[in-house]
Amino acid sequence: MAAKKSKPAPVKKQAAKPAAKAAAPALPSFGPSSADVERLAKLLEKTGLVELEYREGDKRLRLSRSGGAVAYAAAPIAAPAPAAAPVASAAAAPAAEASLENAVTSPMVGTAYLSAEPGAPAFVRVGDKVKEGQTLLIVEAMKVMNPIRSPRAGTVARVIVQNGAPVEYGEALIVIE
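Structure (tokenized):
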């Protein structure tokens, strides 16, 4: 009688465990989840922005494409108020405020330009008569040139801002009387 060769018993293969995903670095518990950070990073990529900042209380999260780093830092502590100003400058303040009551202010944060291009004459000079709606200067904000127009007719009494100077929202630019 011939002996039957027995087949070796089939070896059960264990299902391979999926490789553990690299854990995302833990974010501080102050705010955004890792999903939020990913959405912010995609927003940076989609819009072409270079930097994006998220603040919550005294903490902030800054995403930057230039360095590719994420920075966490406590917000700076406000500096103490300066000592009282001398009386002479306090007396000059009301006079300065009075001269700015007819000032045209900046509607945005940006860079002020007094002419349309370098080397071109300024839109207006002290003593010029202006009409309502006439362009006085340009404020560049986010690569967009925004004309600042005269809110009323009058005479340019003072040009406060310098060409190429940064300006803040509400900052006096030109006085029209």
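Helices lie at 34-47, 87-99. Residues 34-74 form one domain.
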